[in-house]
Each structure stands twice: as C-alpha cells, then as structure tokens.
Fold this protein.
Amino acid sequence: MIYLKSESEIEKLRESALIVSRTLAEVAKKIEPGVETGYLDRIADEYISDQGAKPAFKGYGPKDNPFPATLCISVNEEVVHGIPGSRTLMEGDVVSVDCGVVKDNYYGDHAYTFTVGECDDQTMALVKATRESLDLGIEQAIHGNKVGDISNAVQSHCESKGFGVVRELVGHGIGKSMHEDPSVPNYGRRGRGTRLRSGMALAVEPMITAGTYKVETLDDGWTVVTADKKKAAHFEHDIVVREDSAEILSTFDYIDEIFAKTNSN
Ligand code: MG
Ligand code: MG
C-alpha cells in the first residue's frame, strides 16, 4: 500500500528530515581519528531529544534483539546497521552514519558517509560515486517515471566506476512508518517497477561497495558487512516525487558548511 502525502504531511516529513540533517552535522563536527563511535551516538541522542523528537532506530526490530542505539555507525567493511560502541575511528576509515527520528508521528531517515582524515584514492572514489549516484537516482524521481528508473540510474553509475551495488538492502517509502511501500532497490531496469506519482515520499539510499555486492550479517544480528571485507559507502536522502523534479526534504548543506569551515582554517 502506497500512501501519497498531502502538503501538510510533507511539511511534517520535512521537519523530521531536517532534524536528522542537523543531527548528522552535530556528528560531523566530532568525526576525527580517536573518537569512539559510542560518543557520537550520545551526541546524536542528546541533540534529537533537544529538538523534541525521538530516535527512530532505538528499539526497532525484533523484540528479542531490538537495535540498541540512536545511530547506525558502519565503519569500513560494515555497510549498514553497525552498532555504535567502544570502537574508535582511525585515520583512513570510511564511516557511514545513518540516523532516524520521529516527530509528530512522521519519520526522517537519512545518512552520510564520512572519511576520517586522509583516505586512499579508491576510498575517495567510492564515496564520491555513491554520493553522485544518490543525486542521479533522485533526478529520476519524477511523476510518471518508474522505480526502476531510480534503481537503474544508481546501478549504472556505480558499476561504470567498477563498484558493487548491494542487492539485499533497499530504499523505501517513508511517512508515518519508517519503512513504507514501495521498495526502492539500487539495481534494476529502466521502465520497470512501481509507477512514481506526485506526493510519494521516498528514502533513496545507495549502498555501494569497493568489491563484491554480496553482504553478510554479523552474529550481533544487525551489522551488515561486505562478504569480501572491502569498504562500503552509503548516502540517503528523504525526497518527495513531484511533477518536474523531486523535492529533497533532507539536506547535506549543514555538513558541507562544517567541512567548508574546517578547510578554510
Ligand atoms: Mg532508510
Ligand atoms: Mg537510513
């Protein structure tokens, strides 16, 4: 069942998405070699409650093994759903930070991949291609197109650079539930799948690897890693399908501003 959103619902989705954007920027300020991922989680948790919102991931999932944290922090070969804790970030790491919140019954869910200090060229290329593929996918999210147009744009860009496209995890609709229909895979054929309509709210989220697209889940029941242990990247935006071009509800501007400042110092 796909729920088309009214303009007033879209405003609520935007508010939640922007809380996530600002949370990710708070985390961005603290990303450096030596920082514990559990500390980043506490920063995010505090910031979200200061905004009158609630973390959406904490407690999510099966009753006997709910996700225990506010952020998913996935380092290097971890693709998504990494659990923050005592691990410290090191120079050269690539780290995906995914955050979900709920406010006023509407969800925000988006993610950014950071590089820690100096990273090798292949890692930089992986992160760049993943972010570009998010933009290219979103360009296809217009009324009358198909979900497969988004999927194919992501897949063809990343595969043309020699990277792997994860199959087992996909983007999704978003609204009063964090995960709604339709699924938005990062692989697929143009012109196939669900027809996109104005007012559909989607979380588009390429998960891209430096090697095989195959993934495994660790014994903690959450952390998804690449089968060949090569690095992965993950970016996610919340968007609304519109007539001429998709509207992006979340933003990386706050994060980009922080890095622009750091680089000009
Ligand atoms: Mg998502
Ligand atoms: Mg997410």
Remarks:
- The pocket of magnesium ion (ligand 1) is lined by residues 109, 172, 203, 205, 236 (CB under 6 Å).
- Helices lie at 7-28, 37-50, 121-139, 147-160, 253-264.
